[in-house]
Amino acid sequence: MNWSQMIINSILLGGVYAVVAVGFSLVWGVMNVINIAHGSTIMLGAFLTFAIYNGLGLDPYLTIPITMAVGFVIFFLFQRYLIGARMANIPIYMSLLIMFGVNLIISNVMILIWTANYRSIQPWYANKVLAIGESIIPVTRLVTFVLAIVVCLLLGVFMDRTKLGHAIRATRMDKEAASLMGINTDLIFSLSLGIGGAVAAGAGSLIGIIYPFSPTHGHPYLAIAFIVCTLGGLGSIQGALVGGLIFAAAQTLAVYVFGVTFQNFFTFSLLIAILLILPKGIIGREYYA
Amino acid sequence: MLRFLFQPAKSYKMLSALIGLSALLFVPYAGFTNYFLRIITYIFMYMIISQGWNILGGFGGYISFGNAVFFGVGAYGVAILATVFHLPIWLSLGIGILTAVPLAILMMPVLKLHGHYFAIGTWAVAEAAKELTMNLDISSGATGISIPVMEGGMEFYARFFYFLMLIMAIVTTIITYYIRRSPIGFSLIAMKSDDSGARAVGIDTARLKQIALIISALFASLAGSVYAFWTAIVEPIGVFNIHISILMVTVVLLGGIGTFVGPIIGAVLFGVLNETVLNYFLNTHDIVLGIILIAFVLYVPNGCYEIFKTFWRKAIPNKKREVSVL
Fold first, then answer.
1. pLDDT tens digits for A251-265?
2. How far apart are CA B227 and CA B42, in angstroms?
3. Distance from the CA of B265 to the CA of which of A18, A24, A255, B76 falls in 20 to 30 A?
4. Which of A96, A219, A288 sits opposite B119 (nearest CB)?
5. Across the interface, do A108 and B287 touch by the CB < 8 Å criterion?
6. Does residue B110 belong to the interface with chain A, where contact is any CB pair within 8 Å?
7. What ipTM was estimated for this complex?
8. Residue B155: its pLDDT value, please?
9. What is the mean pLDDT of residues A160-178?
10. Residue A94: its pLDDT value, please?
11. Which of A101, A264, A265 sits opposite B290 (nearest CB)?
């Protein structure tokens, strides 16, 4: 095993993990809602890319805006017209159950349309690699990594520089005070869930190009989102990037030591360990609940 | 022992419970199909696991999303005892149920977490257990373990497990009834409404949560171990599934969270609902269940017990009604 290859792999993986976590982190930070449907939304993004690529022949990377729009519309409409202001006031297990219901619906719809088989997307450049010394970098992984970072940074710019982003951050800090300043917090909630869904679907498109996926394969990604959020702190883009890189490095090392069969076992065990030992993460932000 | 006969309010409840129970004893001999018996047996199973969940989640307010881990450990416990060590059914049931206790003790650090973190922590334990059983040799990996089907024909088979689940359901219901009225039950409810307040009046909440977790685990593994013999196959995706954990939450939610009768009403309702949905919408089963789940959370958040109670109060006005702790 050459170490430079392992380091390259874990960095490339870290970018993907960061983009898996940012949407989840935004929803959790702003609404105090754990989006259990996050994993299946990622799978939905992958399947949409799969369908568009196979049906229309559009390049998989060009489908990302479409899948993001679909993810946004689903979650925005759901929160805006079905749940509404109730989401802020119900006990946590009820919001968890609502999102679990959404999870059931999304994964069942995917099974109906695309069956429960594992699929993968094979564009013409799927097998192209770049060689640097002894290490190799698959082109798809590199492009996915770059785009994942771009999505994270765009979300960061949106939150830091735009008026809407400021309104979302104000709502996260203090809902009552934000509504006194004339912010429509119900709309902000819907937008946050919508953006969370959009980023998840976009992450799904990126993941679908490099890994196989199936309608019920969302749970490991939910765990990854949770781990990265806990490690990096809620609602911060930098936190998600740092958490993603650290977790990817830990996972790459664990797979090297214990073998690939125990990869998911390691993910979930690490999640429990982090919850017990580092509940405030590495960056040390205060958390909700 | 027979004190209840002389207390009008109690004897009324007791009598109706006894009549209901004796009716249940005759159900297998009333000429129903085995399919019907199977549905009722499932309803008993839902009752057992949701009563267990309700002790920690409903009374104590610690919402677990991973109680399936105990169900699965109970199932795998008896499966391994019966196939690898060739123990007879009663012995493996007895030992298999207890396998949940060491696991609950191992899980105790998770009780330090609150709210979302507790829910996700328990979910992660269940998923980790699933991954582990899928990759270990003793649990035969993802194919699972087949237990030899009992001798005696289909009729006997259906009735045997009907009565086994019925006895388990009665036992767990009685235990829950007494727990609810014991210091443990009241302490759990005190802890749910105010954790630090409960500690201030001298409740050892850490110990309390551990006791509640162990009871919860025992109930789930009880159901799981009977389920293993009943279905005669145990596989990781089947028994450690998050759907079983969520099923417990759903059943309790349908009936009424934090009430003693909630899981009973909820189990009947969910059993009927689930079977109807499976009959008419096989392919869209999860979609329909998801919609029902969301609708219930939004429109009937206190469960059906609340509806029954309001009807009951309107139908029979009673000034001398005792304070109900059900």
1. 888 888 888 888 888
2. 9
3. B76
4. A96
5. yes
6. yes
7. 0.84
8. 81
9. 88
10. 84
11. A101
Q: Please state, in angstroms and rounded to a whole number, the distance separating the CA atoms of residues A54 and A72.
A: 23
Min Cα–Cα distance to chain B from A254, Å = 15
| Contact criterion met (CB below 8 Å) for B285 and B292 | no
pLDDT value at residue A288: 43
Task: Using the structure block, give the residue that is written with the tokens 């006894």.
Answer: B18
Number of cross-chain residue pairs from A and B with Cβ atoms under 8 Å apart: 119
What is the Cα B139 distance to its own chain's centre? 24
* pLDDT tens profile A3-32: 888 888 899 999 999 999 998 988 888 888
Nearest Cβ partner of A279 from B117, B127, B135?
A: B117
H-type alpha helices, B27-152 = 34-53, 68-83, 89-98, 100-106, 115-135
User: Residues A129-158: pLDDT tens digits?
Assistant: 888 878 888 888 899 999 999 999 999 899
The answer to whether the Cβ–Cβ distance between B127 and A107 falls below 8 Å is no
Asked if A58 reaches chain B (Cβ–Cβ under 8 Å), the answer is no
Residues in A touching B132 (Cβ below 8 Å): 265
Alpha carbon distance A49, A61 (integer Å): 8
Contact A102, B295 (CB under 8 A): no
Q: Is B214 exposed, middle or buried (0-12, 13-18, 19+ CB in 10 A)?
A: buried
Instruction: Please name the residue of chain B whose CA is at the shortest distance from the CA of residue A277.
Output: B109
Which DSSP helix (H) or strand (E) runs through B145?
strand B145-146
What average pLDDT does chain A have? 87
Phi then psi for A101, rounded to 5 degrees?
A: -60, -45
DSSP B210-261: HHHHHHHHHHHHHHHHHHHHHHSEE-HHHHS-HHHHHHHHHHHHHH-TT-SS
Cα B53 to chain centroid, rounded:
6
Q: Is A288 on the interface with B (CB under 8 A)?
A: yes
DSSP for A194-243, please give it. HHHHHHHHHHHHHHHHHS-B-TTTTHHHHHHHHHHHHHH-TT-HHHHHHH
**3-class secondary-structure state, position B179:** helix
Contacts of B194 (CB under 8 A, 6+ apart): none
Interface test with A, best of B50, B291, B294, B300 (most A CBs within 10 A): B294
